[in-house]
Amino acid sequence: MNTVRIRMLGAFHMFVNNECIDATIGKSKKGLALLQYLILRHEAVVPNQTLIDALWPSEENSNPDNALKTLVSRFRVILNQCSPKLGSCIAAGRGGYRFSLLHGMTIDMYEFEECIRGLKGVHELADQGEAIYQRVLEIYIGDLLQDDQQDEWASGMGIYLHEQFIKSVYAYLSLLKKKGTSEQIVQICRLALETDPFDERLHLELMQALSKVNRNDEALMQYKHVADMHYRYHGEKPPEGIHGFYKHIIKADEILDRSVESIREELKASGDVRGAYICDYSVFREIYSLQMRNLERFGASMYVAVIMITGIASEPIEDETLEKIMTALGEVLGQHLRKGDTVSRFDSSQYALLLPSVNMETGRMVMERMKQIFYRKHPDLRIMFNYRVAPINMPAELPTLSKGKNE
Questions:
Q1: Angle 64-82/48-55 helices, nearest 10 degrees?
Q2: In the sheet where 13-16 sits, what is the strand order?
Q3: Does residue 327 fall inside a structural domain?
Q4: CB count, 10 Å around CB of 4?
Q5: What is the chain's mean pLDDT, rounded?
Q6: Which pLDDT belongs to residue 401?
Q7: Is the Cβ–Cβ distance between 15 and 82 less than 8 Å?
Q8: Is the distance from CB of 169 to CB of 187 less than 8 angstroms?
Q9: How many angstroms from the chain centroid is the CA of residue 404?
Q10: Half-sphere exposure of residue 307, counting CA atoms within 13 Å on the CB side?
Q11: Which of residues 128, 159, 175 is at a domain's end?
């Protein structure tokens, strides 16, 4: 048995074993219109007079019943030429004719209506529910017989099916918004807009979804597209809802621009940053975490150094004197270390330093330079400048303590 597929949504097409037979059945325009009319009525018997009025609305015929009978007979022959017994899909009934869905025959309109019935009672996107919504979008590729010259008998059903499609899309979008899947909403809206390019809600949902995923430029392009369509085809500006959202996007962009400019001005006002950054130990630890992420990304290293001030021969240093010495040392470190280095007061007599992008040798050289600068600035202090340098990831064996004093 051959498989027969009939498409009523969008352009009308008929296939037998996936081979299009439009050219053959299109030889009889009245016969094709008869088939389409009966399909719309499903399998209900349509009276002869109703068919005559629909197919010959303004034509006078001395024997209309015979004309209908002849049309049916000839069109059945055409259908049978395409596939054996295909003509039996136009079946005679009491006082009229009906469409008969043959074995192996599918019609997209019927499947669409079945999907719409299947969506009743669907309130969440379980696997089956989402599959039906996706199938609706696959089937409804256009309005009913939209590429044919619309007769009055087809327009009513076309409007009904279009409304059902839009309602199902709205319901699908509402469920997707509960899940927060904005990217999928963008895809669904764009697909549905191919069928109904003037639907206000679809455009608005699309722009909102684009905005939520930080694609404001695309949202603005969408608004300009909608505005152009309304001016071109309707001679008017876009609906207020769409225009209102456009103003919202523009306002948000203006706020962001002002915020960026404000931050830039504040950063520039802070002046040229020189020397190391001196901070509390809690901030010191946060900076360590941040720098380690960056250094690991580029395969670089980071060393930690500790500077400790003690009295010569372990002589105690008075608290007030020690505080002055530590303050002076902090000034030296802040002024003479690199911009990328970080310094924090570890306790009353120690400073902790983060030295990114150095090795053991260069780390010791930095400490020796700080020691020399400090002694040169404060030659009268009788103290020991002690330090240790070690890589962050090798705490097991610290290097030998290096000491220095003013003699």
A1: 80
A2: 19-20, 13-16, 4-7, 105-107
A3: yes
A4: 22
A5: 87
A6: 41
A7: no
A8: no
A9: 62
A10: 26
A11: 175
CB neighbour list of residue 256: distance below 8 Å, 6 or more residues apart: none
Structural domain total, the chain: 3
The CA distances from residue 350 to 196, 313, 343, 377, 397, in Å, are 72, 18, 11, 19, 20
Amino acid at 298: F
Residue-wise pLDDT tens digits, 271-323 = 556 778 888 888 888 888 888 877 767 666 789 999 999 988 778 889 999 99
Tokens of 282: 């809690």
Full residue range of the structural domain in which residue 2 is found:
1-175
Residue 398 forms part of a structural domain? no
The owner of tokens 């001395």 is: 62
Q: State both tokens at 212.
A: 């939520």
Whether 130 is covered by a domain: the verdict is: yes
- Report the predicted TM-score, pTM, of the whole model to 2 decimal places: 0.63
